[in-house]
Amino acid sequence: MADLASRITKPDDKTPAAVVAETKPNVADADAPVDGANGSGLIEPVYDVEVKLSDLQADADSPLFSVSSFEELGLPKAINDGLLAMNFKKPSKIQERALPLMLSNPPCNMIAQSQSGTGKTAAFVLTVLSRVDLSQPTQPQALLLAPSRELARQIQGVIQTIGQFCENLIVEAAIPGSISRETGVKASVVVGTPGTVIDLIKRRQFDASKLKVLVIDEADNMLDQQGLGEQCVRVKHVIPKAIQILLFSATFPEKVMRYAETFAPKANQMKLRHQELTVKGISQMYMDCPDEQKKYEILCKLYGLMTIGSSVIFVRTRESANEIQKRMEADGHKVSVLHGAYDGANRDALLDDFRSGRSKVLITTNVLARGIDVSSVSMVINYDIPMKGPGEREPDAETYLHRIGRTGRFGRVGVSISFVHDRRSYEALSQIANYYTIDLVQLKPDDWDFTEKKVQDVIKSSRAQAEYNPAAVKA
Ligand SMILES: Nc1ncnc2c1ncn2[C@@H]1O[C@H](COP(=O)(O)OP(=O)(O)OP(=O)(O)O)[C@@H](O)[C@H]1O
């Protein structure tokens, strides 16, 4: 344990400023004046952010690095026009490297890993769009599976946006309540959750016989989790044998990777070591709370003291999500809650509100830990450290990484604060930090000046990015 705990840095054994400097994002200078409203200048941040983003794409060590352009990938014009409309100037590393392999003929399977927020979605969406024959607009040809309705809807949106100039492209979501029993699936591209997809195929409302591509996003979770894993296997049994399978995730634990290799045989692979998985733009901190009860007061104080922008608070259970919402609202904070107990329409409306900025604080469970892309999120709170396994006794390093990855998207900066309150939570976080070799900055509930400065510096520069980089704020 000794070396595990050593990854957590306390102000006593290491100067916090030095720790922050090590983990400080290289996107924008956190100490630079950024707030136009206080007269510190509007022009410099615009310049700063854009130059630094292109710097990142020119830095060989960055996951956003690339040497080529989208044009060089030889995609059809309609797709390139879609990328232009999205303001995608250059591919990221995963896009540049995986696309030529995925687009080559005869089609080859792919298992691809890349850090959160580095553009995996566009990588598989471009492959799907390139493979679909638009002269058969209602014949399902590509199926994309995701673990939550929210992620399925989001992927559907990305396909529709990048494919906006592809004539006759029809994309449908196969999530609970979305496909009418009368018509069934009438689209060339279908994005869904595995349970609904298998039901539709069984009821003959979805003709899977001509599918050419199967994409599984968050594949480690989808293949490993009880229930989801079985459903994915059932889907595989009812689709053509000669199908191109593309598995994507930011995390692929060794055990799941071995299984993935049998699920997608002879796949090309892009893997990362676990030390390479963290995103530099996310400043990772932890709050040392005296006990479980005090966690709530500290959370409220954090929100009371700071203007935070959009943030996500992850908790272990639906009940504690509801409870925290009630208490925060009683204390005058406006917050939303989203978890699996809400019905589909409600969940959609809640996430749409959060995306548009109508609600700024979202309390949720692991249901939103993966994939959700809301560029304006500048802070993620792990109110409870994610745990897994029987009795939830094992730190869940993968979920930690996905949760904090809701901020710091595509070169942006963000902050994560993980709350610990006893030896167990402290040790769990230490193990996670050790696994990824992260130096976490300690925040103390009795030193709000320090906390405010550290958190606010990051949030201010993230707000500057959101204000000045049009691609950063997506409705
Ligand atoms: N080449 C590009 N240029 C500019 N922005 C891009 C590019 N590719 C993707 N993006 C943007 O980056 C953000 C993150 O992309 P995406 O959601 O695909 O990440 P991801 O790798 O799937 O992350 P996660 O592991 O969290 O699912 C999105 O807002 C997307 O629009």
UniProtKB/TrEMBL annotation:
Chain ranges of the Helicase C-terminal domain: 281-456
Catalytic reaction equation(s): ATP + H2O = ADP + phosphate + H(+)
SUPFAM superfamilies: P-loop containing nucleoside triphosphate hydrolases (SSF52540)
GO molecular function: ATP binding; hydrolase activity; nucleic acid binding; RNA helicase activity
Keywords annotated in UniProt: ATP-binding, Helicase, Hydrolase, Nucleotide-binding
All copies of domain Helicase ATP-binding, residue ranges: 101-270
PROSITE patterns to which the protein is assigned, alphabetical: DEAD_ATP_HELICASE, HELICASE_ATP_BIND_1, HELICASE_CTER, Q_MOTIF
Cross-referenced InterPro entries: DEAD/DEAH_box_helicase_dom (IPR011545), Helicase_ATP-bd (IPR014001), Helicase_C-like (IPR001650), P-loop_NTPase (IPR027417), RNA-helicase_DEAD-box_CS (IPR000629), RNA_helicase_DEAD_Q_motif (IPR014014)
Keyword match Transferase: no
Extent of motif Q motif: 68-96
EC numbers: 3.6.4.13
Highest taxon of the lineage: Eukaryota
Class of the enzyme per the UniProt entry, highest EC level: hydrolase
Domain DEAD-box RNA helicase Q: 68-96
Membership in a protein family: Belongs to the DEAD box helicase family.
Listed name of the protein: RNA helicase
High-level lineage: Eukaryota, Fungi, Dikarya, Ascomycota, Pezizomycotina
